[in-house]
Specification:
With 233 residues, the chain is mostly helical. It has a domain at 75-222: Tetracycline Repressor, domain 2, CATH 1.10.357. It has ten helices and no strands. The longest helix has 25 residues, at 135-159. 25% of the residues are buried.
C-alpha cells in the first residue's frame, strides 16, 4: 500500500484542509502494522498507534472500530498485498497441466518472500504471530492461507494420485517450507555460504529447483513400500 504523501506546510494563520479518508486509513494501517509487529497484539496500545500515525483515537474508531479490528485488518493486508502482486495462477497457459500449476504456485511464493518492496512489518507481524498467535490468525488462515494450501494439495494429488491424505498434506507443507526457508532463515543462509542476488533469474532458478525436487520426491513417498510414519501411542 502506498505511503501517504507529506502534507505541504502551511502558515500558522491558515487552516489545513481535512485529509482524504483513504489517506488517513492508509497511514493508520501502516503505523499499526509496525506497532503490532514490534510489540504484539496484546502489548500494543491504541495510544502508541495514534502517536505513530499522527491521528486521534476517534480516527481509529471511525476507520476500524476497535483495536481488534485494526489488528485483523493489518494481518489481512500483509497477506493480500503479496497475493495481489503475485497470484498463484499467474502466467498459466490456457490449458495448464498440474506441473504448470505447481510451477506457478512455487514461483509466486518465491517472489513473495523475495519482494524487497514489501513493507517490512508484513513479515515481522507474521513472525510474531507464529510465536504468539492472536485471534486474527485464525481469520487469516481461513480467508487467505487455507484456500491456497488446499489448491496446492489438489495439484500434488493430480501429480501423484497414490498419495495418502497424510502424504499429501506433508508434501504440501514441504513445498511451502522450501519457499519460506529463504525468508525465515535468510540470515542463517547468508552465513552458510554466498547466496545469489534476489533478482528474477535467481527466483526462476530457485523455483525450478523446488519444483524438480518435489516432482522427484512425490513418487518415492507414494510407494506402497515406503516406510510409514511412526505412530505414537
Amino acid at each position: 500500500m502506498p505511503r501517504a504523501k507529506p502534507t505541504t506546510r502551511l502558515r500558522p494563520t491558515a487552516k489545513a484542509p481535512p485529509e482524504p479518508p483513504d489517506t488517513t486509513r492508509a497511514r493508520i494501517l501502516e503505523a499499526a502494522g509496525n506497532v503490532f509487529a514490534d510489540h504484539g497484539f496484546r502489548e500494543a496500545t491504541v495510544r502508541s498507534i495514534c502517536m505513530c500515525a499522527g491521528v486521534n483515537v476517534a480516527a481509529i474508531n471511525y476507520h476500524f472500530r476497535s483495536k481488534e479490528a485494526l489488528h485483523e485488518a493489518c494481518m489481512l493486508e500483509a497477506h493480500r498485498y503479496s497475493a495481489d502482486r503475485y497470484p498463484v495462477n499467474a502466467g498459466l497457459p490456457p490449458v495448464p497441466t498440474p506441473r504448470h500449476r505447481l510451477t506457478a504456485f512455487v514461483r509466486a511464493f518465491v517472489l513473495k518472500v523475495m519482494d524487497q518492496d514489501r513493507p517490512s512489518w508484513h513479515g515481522r507481524l507474521m513472525a510474531r504471530e507464529m510465536i504468539d498467535p492472536s485471534p486474527a490468525l485464525a481469520i487469516v488462515i481461513e480467508h487467505e492461507i487455507r484456500p491456497n494450501f488446499e489448491y496446492l494439495m489438489a495439484t500434488l494429488t493430480e501429480l501423484e494420485p497414490r498419495l495418502s491424505v497424510l502424504q499429501r498434506r506433508m508434501a504440501a507443507a514441504s513445498v511451502v517450507g522450501q519457499c519460506l526457508h529463504y525468508f525465515w532463515c535468510k540470515e542463517v543462509v547468508l552465513r552458510l555460504g554466498e547466496v545469489p542476488p534476489a533478482d528474477d533469474d535467481w527466483a526462476e532458478t530457485l523455483s525450478n529447483h523446488i519444483v524438480n525436487f518435489t516432482l522427484g520426491g512425490l513418487p518415492a513417498i507414494a510407494k506402497p513400500t515406503a516406510n510409514p510414519v511412526a505412530k505414537h501411542p
